[in-house]
Amino acid sequence: MNPPALAPTDALLDLRNLSKRYGTFTALDGVTLSVEGGQVFGLLGPNGAGKTTLLRILATLLRPTGGTAAVAGLDVTRQPDAVRQHIGVVNGGMGLPARLTGREILHSFAGFYGLSREQAEQRIAELDAALDLGRTLDTRAGEYSTGMRQKVTIARAVIQDPAVLILDEAASGLDIFARRALLDWVAAARRPGRLTLYSTHVMSEVEEVCDRVAVLHGGRLLAEGTQLELLARTGAQTLEQAFFRLVEQDGAAHAS
């Protein structure tokens, strides 16, 4: 069975007062955010800012402590199975079965989403053209370079053409050529009705590929907008300067 059709919605991501606590530690603190499709949306913050916690909630791997989160109009807590049908996830630590070729891996995942063999082959051909999969398709994953592994990992995540693609530090550990290929693909993949969430602490990646940016620090959402809007809000000349000014303002507010 193919993934169920989505109800019409402008916001592919809708967070309302979303929180996550571990005992006395607050990983997410009342985050409210609405994001429409047709864009690459950046989540910017240092390690420990709450980015990965947020994305794991969206991927239905964690349950929030408070508030709500909806992906493509589907509640992550009440409709987790439906959410999983409409998302793809890539992070820096995902592995591939070493004995399978790229084509076998992609066919296996296509089957999870109800694609026929013919549909899967058509989709693999599309992804080959977009990602230049080349010899990864007929080479066993155990023989892959880092760049080859990341290409197949991305192709696996988008085999069903998900409404929301989650990239969590996806460029981490990549060499310069593999990183370049990833950023080029992310920039080219934006289209109506689809949303890419790009989480990183690398400013240059956000500046290059993201249409809008949310700045997280200490589990709190400090600001959200286009890069120009964030520069105007802070009076900064660069995104890095804007980020540090937002963090400094947040620190001063919580110290008083």
TrEMBL record:
Pfam families: ABC_tran. It comes from the Bacteria. InterPro entries: AAA+_ATPase (IPR003593), ABC_transporter-like_ATP-bd (IPR003439), ABC_transporter_ATP-binding (IPR050763), P-loop_NTPase (IPR027417). One of its GO terms (molecular function) is ATP binding. Keywords: ATP-binding, Nucleotide-binding, Transport. Residues 13-243 form the ABC transporter domain. Belongs to the ABC transporter superfamily. This is ABC transporter ATP-binding protein. It comes from Deinococcus piscis.
